[in-house]
């Protein structure tokens, strides 16, 4: 190779190296900017300011559309706004970008469940559990239990709710739902124990007071039922649960 040609090649290589380095530096800068916008959006979301959160998330999306965690944040934001179809879309995008994203599978199942698509929800919860590195499997087991309760499949619900409790022995919502599974299986003493365990762990857990009150009402323990329903009304005044408790109290002559 002639000397001048060799030096031309060296010069071209140096130029290309600078271009590649510049592109990499620009990409890293854009990623940092996107992460900063996402972090700010998450802070707005923590304050329930969904509009400002959405603004920041879309800024981040312009810079890094392939961030699965950003799609998850967008799904959460749209869910809080009551736009479940967009929440569903972004969860599917998150999963497409990160196929082992168990939290996204679990959340997608929760969206399906609220849309009345219970069988689809169950499939997503099961997919979440396929990842042995999933950090919160108790959540998917709880959701599976609740889904099976809605289908009156109490044995299956019981299996998943007991597994959730085995994983996290202080998991209050799992005890509450397990009580409902036991009721469905007509194991009323176990149901009562499950509700009472939930309240032992969290003395302000309204759902457990309501469920316990209804169980006591059916078993004829009127005074204890009154006490449970009173707790619901005092802890959650004006809510649908409080209205239900008040109907029982009126039936009890209170």
Describe the 3D structure:
There is one protein chain. This protein has helices spanning 3-46, 50-63, 68-80, 84-97, 102-114, 118-130, 137-150, 154-167, 172-184, 188-201, 206-219, 222-235, 240-251. It is mostly helical and 254 residues long. It folds into three domains: 18-99, Tetratricopeptide repeat domain (Serine Threonine Protein Phosphatase 5, Tetratricopeptide repeat), CATH 1.25.40.10; 119-191, Tetratricopeptide repeat domain (Serine Threonine Protein Phosphatase 5, Tetratricopeptide repeat), CATH 1.25.40; 203-254, no CATH class. The longest helix is centred in the first third of the chain and has 44 residues, at 3-46. The protein is elongated and about 70 Å long. Residues 1-7 and 14-21 have low confidence and may be disordered.
Q: Detail the poorly predicted runs.
A: 1-7, 14-21
Number of helices: 13
CATH fold label of the largest domain: Serine Threonine Protein Phosphatase 5, Tetratricopeptide repeat
The assigned structural class equals mainly alpha
Average pLDDT confidence is 91
Query: What count of structural domains?
Result: 3
Distance between the termini: 103 Å
Radius of gyration: 26 Å
From the coordinates shown, what is the CATH architecture of the largest domain?
Alpha Horseshoe
The gross shape turns out to be: elongated
| Major sheet characteristics | none
Strand content: under 5%
CATH class of the largest domain: Mainly Alpha
Helical residue percent band: over 70%
CATH homolog superfamily of the largest domain? Tetratricopeptide repeat domain
| Helix and strand run | HHHHHHHHHHHHH
Tell me how many strands there are: 0
